[in-house]
Amino acid sequence: MSQTAIITGASSGIGAATAHKFVELGYQVINIARRKSPVDGVINISADLSSEEGASNAAQQAADALGTGSPASLVHNASLMLKDSVTGCSNADLMRVLAVNVGAVNPRNRELLPGIGAGSSVIYVGSTLSEKAVAGAHSYVISKHAQLGQMRATCQDLMGSKIHTAMICPGFTDTEMLRQHLGGDTSLMHEIGSQNGFGRLVTPEEIAGAIVWAHQSPVINGTVIHANLGQLER
Predict the structure, then answer these.
(1) What is the band of 231 on the pLDDT scale with cuts at 50, 70, 90?
(2) What is the pTM of this model?
(3) Listed residue (59, 41, 161) closest to 103, CA to CA
């Protein structure tokens, strides 16, 4: 039986690298994002994940592309990260970040989980900031902490279904999102990249490998996986 990987944000960075790995393994891959995936053979579903309507419509389209009862991997990867702080974060910005990082996951799970079979997975792409915090990323930190609870709740609700969950928490990874957050400051990126056991940024391909491995490993059901090259603790 053919398998499918449904990945949000497979248009760049970790999502695109994950799409590439799944395609290499012979999976049908569906990208849900504003932009098309650069990976050949990927089915693209255009969606504005900041709105409930956009997230729900995309989930329904992805469900239509799935064979009922087929195994699949739902990879919740798309994220929005703003520069903000506790004294300057507006409710509108907080709700916008929560809508993409947490709210849009809900209709995908609701629409897709009933149609996928044993051997499937629900993989959340979190962050080091799912369990910690830094200054200047207030709404993002809140959303990633919430997403960790979402993964754990998903695990409990799916007990007995033979569908497993996990959260991959990347360390600082060389992605478009990080470069934008740091304003393209290459010296700052180098400094951040030096704060682990290997003295460099994580690559999107390394995180993609962890995601594929997590999908193939039901024994880690409900687990948080730290994919950060051994982050320096302060």
Answers:
(1) confident
(2) 0.93
(3) 59
